[in-house]
Every structure is written in structure tokens, then in C-alpha cells.
Specification:
single chain; 158 residues; mainly beta; Hnrnp arginine n-methyltransferase1; 5-stranded antiparallel sheet; two-stranded antiparallel sheet; 9 strands; 40% strand; SAM-dependent_MTases_sf; histone methyltransferase activity; methyltransferase; Protein arginine N-methyltransferase domain-containing protein
Length: 158
Amino acid sequence: EFDLVTMKLEEMDFTANVELRPRAGQPGNCYDAESLHDKATPSKSVVCYGLVLWFETGFTSRFCKEMPTTLSTSPYTPKTHWYQTLLTFREPIPMYSEPAYTSSASDIGTDANLAAKIILRISIARAVRHRSIDISVETSAVTVEGRKLRYPAQIFNL
């Protein structure tokens, strides 16, 4: 969380660690790659294609005494002229929607050896170009047993 009134220039660049897991116990929400077109065939796997980023800005009573509000670009709030940012992975990562153990020796995050979670390291820094940012994403797929596959880092300029 940032306070745009008091934050310092060096606080604009930051790194965050994030762990993604599919929602468990959501019947009908997860489908395997073959049944994506046939929504009547639920599966125990789901495919993660990337990340969605958005922001929320509080116009609190400190500055908007008459009508404090929050501007959000979340996909779960009413639409505004602002949009979310989509960062796609180089390749989709198949994951278990319900954790299960595998004995597969195949690559992690493949249809034969689904990931149980995705660990991300996201860094955001001011870009050289005015009013732009650079975002780097380091991605690892992890099995229930803790085996890990690291993907090449990706750089996005916005």
C-alpha cells in the first residue's frame, strides 16, 4: 500500500513475492485443455495463462471530505475507463484444481505432471521512458511434493 502524498521517489520501485493456487472445491470452474470447449466436462486440472494486475486508489476523507470513495480497476468492480493489465506467461501452466500426488518424471507444469502452485517474484521499476514502468516476472511451477521448475524471467514495458 502506498500513500502518494508521503511516499518517496525510491519507494516507487518494489518487488513482491506471490503464490498462486487454483481455487479448491469450486465444482464446474476447472476444465482440462481438451474440454475447454465442452464446459459440461469438469476436470481436476486448470490452466493458468498469466496474471491480471489492477490498482485501487482511495480518495479518502482526507482529500474528499464531501464524498470519500475508492477508484478501482479490479475486474470485480464496476467498469471505468481504466482497464486491467494482462501479463501472459510464455506458455500456459497446467495446474491441479485439487492437490494430488504424482510419480511422474516428466516436466513440472505439463499435462503429465501438473503444478500444485505457481510462485512468482514480480518487480516493478520506473522505466527510462516518461510515464512508463518496467515489470519483471520470475515464475516457478511447484508440485505437491515440492519439486520446482523455473521458467525464464519475462520483462514487460508499460
